[in-house]
Amino acid sequence: MAKGLPIMDTFSNQGLKVDRICSRCGDANETTLHLFLECAESNIMWRLSLVRLDTTLFSFSNFYDWCVDMIYKCKVAHSWETVMMIIWKIWGMRSSWVFEKKKIDPMADCSKAMAFLDNVGDIIMTASMSISIECSPLEAEAQAVLFGLTLAYDVGLRRLEVESDCLQLVKMLQGIVQEKYASQLIVFDALSLTSILESCSFAFCLRLFNKVAHLIAKSSMTNELRVLMEDCTLDVLPAILGDKDNM
Questions:
Q1: Is it true that domain 109-245 has CATH number 3.40.800.10?
Q2: CA nearest to 202, candidates 171, 176, 227, 228
Q3: Closest by alpha carbon to 156, among 207, 198, 99, 210?
Q4: Domain range summary for the chain, segments of one domain joined by +
Q5: Calpha distance 229→155 (Å, rounded)
Q6: Environment class of 246 (CB within 10 Å of its CB; exposed 0-12, middle 13-18, buried 19+)
Q7: Most buried of 62, 99, 125, 245, CB within 10 angstroms?
């Protein structure tokens, strides 16, 4: 891959007269190592990803050596697949800019939100935070479920019934289907977390009956984690009361 990718350094080494400078950051030649690790745009993607890597801390002479080192370090199940997904995303961002002049902001926000209710519909907790990474709608939904499960565990909730209006995601969480996308890796993380709960089930609900989560998501479009215990914002309260009446 290091010598075969159609990047400026490869073209230059083949004798073509091209500008070798990285078109995204303009700070260095576009080598494979720079494209995927050293470029400031790529570093943001790595730091916001599931693996939380700061690629400025690495010191490798080429991208191949870094890959070999990462394969050795990836001991957790599906972690290397996650790394490859991020590399593919970086390549897609680079291609969008080079061929379409479309700059994809790695900090583009997509909010995730959860409403935690007890068995009679009273609020236990509401929470929201933006997803600061370019991702598909299915990935965003999966991130929201993982986000909610993590928070639920942190506050001591051990018996959960999780509802989502994304049928494809529910089927993945129930083990009915598997996808060859980054969303499946997030689902694996979510299911791993459920193994330490007393009980956890997943069910589909129509979007009409999932207004609370969407209202909470709209109210949080910053990177700050926002958690309210036994409370919610005033714009969300009518929807919660309406759902409670319909229980």
A1: no
A2: 171
A3: 198
A4: 8-100, 109-245
A5: 10
A6: exposed
A7: 125
pLDDT value at 189 more than 60: yes
pLDDT digits (tens, 9 = 90+) for 106-130: 655 456 667 777 777 677 777 776 6
- Residues in a beta bridge with 161: 201
DSSP labels, 39-105: SHHHHHHHHHSTT---GGG---SSHHHHHHHHHHH--STTHHHHHHHHHHHHHHHHHHHHHH--PPP
Mean pLDDT of 187-205: 92
Q: Is beta strand 123-132 parallel, antiparallel or unpaired with respect to 109-117? A: antiparallel
| Three-state secondary structure call for residue 219 | coil
Structure confidence at residue 109 (pLDDT): 47
DSSP string, 105-172: PTT-EEEEEEEEE-TTS-EEEEEEEEEES---HHHHHHHHHHHHHHHHHHTT--EEEEEES-HHHHHH
Residue 239 has pLDDT above 90, yes or no: no
CA angle (26, 28, 33) in 5-degree steps: 120
Burial class (CB in 10 A: 0-12, 13-18, 19+), 168: middle
Distance CA(103)–CA(24), nearest Å, equals 9
DSSP state of 6: -
pTM value surpassing 0.70: no
**3-state secondary structure at position 202:** strand
